Amino acid sequence: MTNSVKIPSNIKTFFIEIGELSYFAGRFFKEVFSRPFEFKELLRQCYNIGNRSLLLVGVTGFILGLVFTLQSRPTLANLGVESWIPSMVSISIVREIGPVIIALICAGRISSGIGAELGSMRVTEQIDAMEVSGTNPFKYLVVTRIMATTLMVPLLIIFGDAIALFGSAIVENLKSDVSLVLYFNEVFNALKFTDIFPATIKTFFFGFAIGLVGSFKGYNCKKGTVGVGEASNTAVVYTSMLIFVIDFIAVFVFDIFFEI
Questions:
Q1: Residue 254 and residue 72: Cα distance in Å, rounded?
Q2: Count of CB atoms within 10 A of residue 244's CB?
Q3: Residue 146: predicted pLDDT
Q4: In the prediction, which pLDDT does 4 show?
Q5: N or C end of the chain, less CB within 10 A?
Q6: Is residue 247 part of a domain?
Q7: Residue 207 — pLDDT band, cuts 50, 70, 90?
Q8: Nearest Cα to 82, choosing from 164, 161, 185, 183?
Q9: Residue 51 belongs to what domain range?
Q10: Could you give the count of Cα atoms lying within 13 Å of 248 in the half-sphere of its Cβ?
């Protein structure tokens, strides 16, 4: 007799979901280049995602800049290198802290919203009605949302980084009487192409992950109205985990690339 190895159900479910998500992503890349192109719906989604998240991202970035500078300043002051604050804060925020924190905020705000919206449409059979009427619901609902998040999340992160640096400049102006012009001169002197380019590129992947997971969870929602809440919650959890994975891969790859 041969002893069969039993795979735990949660691990099996995880790998099945990874496969379904990969198929879902493949279908997106197939549909995104086919006609008809839903430009009007894409613009509407871009406006909704960007406009409704702007205040939240701005407040988050401003507080991030304030807190990070206030926490870092005493240590640098003890070492006698207060002049390094603009360069240290700008590099830290632009390269890592800003993109990741703001992407997580967008995951909670955008991914959960997409999951709940598409999930409610699925359980109320609106998506089924679109299929019966001859409309391609995947093209209209999913492709436009994933494209919108891929385009808008990088812009939100750039906006959040700028507000964070402004908050940091205010702290330095109040604590050390450093003018805004001098502060931002130091910021721009410290930032290099190798700081900005990798940080910007990975934000597009953050946006794609936010739209993909939220759409996947909502589009495949089951279990009635209970499933809508479950889709919204799991979309945030999965997206947050995926953001950290993408960030690790991006940092690892770009570190090797720019070393070479």
A1: 27
A2: 12
A3: 92
A4: 52
A5: N
A6: yes
A7: very high
A8: 183
A9: 37-259
A10: 6
Tell whether the torsion through CA atoms of 81, 86, 92 and 95 is positive or negative.
Answer: negative
pLDDT at residue number 260: 42
Comparing CA positions, the residue from 141, 153, 183, 154 lying closest to residue 166 is: 183
Count of the separate structural domains present in the chain? 1
CB 209 within 8 A of CB 85: no
Among 33-47, 105-119, 220-234, whose mean pLDDT is lowest?
220-234
Please report whether residue 193 resides in a domain.
yes
CB 49 within 8 A of CB 151: no
Residue 109 domain-assigned? yes
Within-domain flag for 27: no
Are the beta carbons of 146 and 28 closer than 8 angstroms?
A: yes
Distances in Å between the Cα of 218 and the Cα atoms of 116, 226, 229 are: 6, 12, 10
What gap in Å lies between CA 61 and CA 83, rounded to an integer?
Answer: 22
